[in-house]
Amino acid sequence: MATYVIGDLQGCFDELQGLLKKIDYQPKEDHLWFVGDIVNRGPKSLECLRFIKKLHEKGRAQMVLGNHDFHLLAAYAGLEKFQSKSDTLQPILKADDVKALINWLRTQPLMVSHSVFDAVMVHAGIPPQWTISEAQTYGKEVEAHLQSDDWKTFVTEHLFGAEPDEWCESLAGWARIRYIVNAFARMRYCDSNGKLEFKLKSAPDSTTGPFQPWFVHSNRKNKTHEIFFGHWSTLGAIDAYSIHATDTGCLWGGKLTAYCIETKQRHTLDCVQNCKPKNKKNI
Ligand SMILES: [Mn+2]
């Protein structure tokens, strides 16, 4: 039995199938962890969503919600203002089973923990000031809103926005929920206290001042666990600092990654250019 952590798919279904073949994936024995952003920009988001839902219902796969997965929930709920020309969500929104797909997607968590190893998976990261146990608790606060009867109001009116960018345990209401979502699903850079910086998307260099990749801060309280994440395609493959970066740019003609937790081995598939969207904005 193996647990493979699969990087951001963004609708690259054929590449996923190619990678599963390459690693000799055994559907009845192996588990798949998907780091989120399973949909959007690429050509086969509907196929990715159906595939992961089916495996999840059989107890063979888990996923966490990424920013593009939240975007799909909002698009279904009727929010138009953040929709982009490079979105490729229409086949899902028009599918016969869209309601079942969406109702399943909104039950997915922001963080997944391994049952044996001290390993967790999130989409973007965990701020330095949160322990793993705190992160778990905060994630559940968001999940409760997504799973409530009033979830559409949450995703259309309260979910999006870059404020507040600083965490404080006493943060309350939608501001608290928004920070938690932004940390788990959008963060790349922050300062040592978890103040978020969203303008920077490039790979780290010496010009970012107090803002550093969330995982390099020396005071980080969640170093107790190996943390798997995606979201940051310009970062490349990193296995250091007790973190594993798995978005190796499949969507951009890079590679799709499957990291085996048991063997600590990375497997990759070179991705074809036909997944590449014309508009490279809004990574
Ligand atoms: Mn993302």
Describe this entry's structure for a reader.
There is one protein chain. The protein has 283 residues and is an alpha/beta fold. It has a single domain (3-188, 220-275), classed as 4-Layer Sandwich (Purple Acid Phosphatase, chain A, domain 2), CATH 3.60.21.10. It contains 8 helices and 13 strands. It has helices at 13-22, 45-57, 67-76, 90-93, 98-105, 132-146, 151-158, 173-185; strands at residues 3-6, 31-34, 61-63, 111-113, 119-122, 189-190, 196-197, 212-213, 226-229, 238-240, 243-245, 255-260, 265-270. The strands form 3 sheets. A 5-stranded mixed beta sheet has the order 3-2-1-12-13. A 5-stranded mixed beta sheet has the order 4-5-9-11-10, covered by helices on one side. Strands 7-6-8 form a 3-stranded antiparallel beta sheet, with no helix packed on it. β1 (3-6), α1 and β2 (31-34) form a beta-alpha-beta unit. It starts with a strand and ends in a 13-residue tail after the last strand. The model has no long low-confidence stretch (mean pLDDT 94). The chain binds manganese (II) ion (MN). Manganese (II) ion is lined by residues 37, 66-68, 123, 231.
